[in-house]
Amino acid sequence: MKKQISLLAAITLIMCFATSVLAYTEGKNLEAPKAQNVVIDGDLSEWDTARGLKIDDQSQIIDQIEHWDGVEDCSMEIYVMWDEENLYVAMKIMDDTPLVYREGFPLDELDSVILFLSTDPLAYPERTEYTATDWRIVQSADRFNNNYDFFIYVDREMIADNKGWGTRGEYGDELVFDDYEGAIVKVDGGIVWEGRIPLHNLSNADIPRLVPAAGMTVGFDFSILDVDLPCPGIHSLRIQSSARLDGRDRTPAMHDVDRNPSLWGTLTFVE
Question: Which residues of 235-245 are buried (b: 16+ CB within 10 A; e: fewer)?
């Protein structure tokens, strides 16, 4: 009898994971291998770069399409790895004017990237509103004397009940996450950005911590914002991994991942 109950529970869990894969944006799943001795130094030689997502197509632009001059102007590849305590994110960013940063401006009006992540693998995949386990994490950086300062803005304003984890870091100059590690290396045509996010930062007494495991799938998406002018806030080209839009009249509301997590892609943890 106990074996039958255990088997039923396992089947139910697998079905929940499978449902999550089907209900987010189809065809936008990123496989994340388990990390092995990752060093955060901007060198991606220990990464499996065959498993990645590309943001490099005109159909993925959700704002200011008129300011995109092709992949050399703004595009990126994203890679993710994991262990039981951390999410590792690597980005190859092509940008002819990378890391435009100005103190005092909202991070999502600067050169930045946005990570969208659900920390609940059993979250209802067709939900059209954020819950406390849905995260919009804006990351930016500023170069100073050949070193980089990293800034994080966690936007929780769209969540009706954030369970005590509210918006932090909107106007930069804050790292927000404990024990975050980051490294940026300049390359021809852009930068490589490698980071480690300790997952305990995305939890509290009322929000369980995500503990990745092989075979688990969670909601996930990624965005890049590009400002080429010397004054931020004038325009921010934005390209979204999960978007597939036609025409030239683009606004973020047409693919509103900032409010509707059912539009995200997915992330699957693999060995």
Answer: bbbbbbbbbeb
In whole angstroms, give the CA distance from residue 254 to residue 56.
19
Q: What is the CATH number of the domain that holds 244?
A: 2.60.40.1190
What secondary structure does DSSP assign to 171-201, as a single string? TSS---STT-EEEEEEETTEEEEEEEEEGGG
Q: How many domains does the chain have?
A: 1
Which residue stretches of the chain have pLDDT < 50?
1-22
Which tokens go with 77?
A: 């590849």
Tens-digit pLDDT profile for residues 112-165 = 999 999 999 999 999 999 999 999 999 999 987 779 999 999 999 999 999 999
Domain span at 183 = 2-270
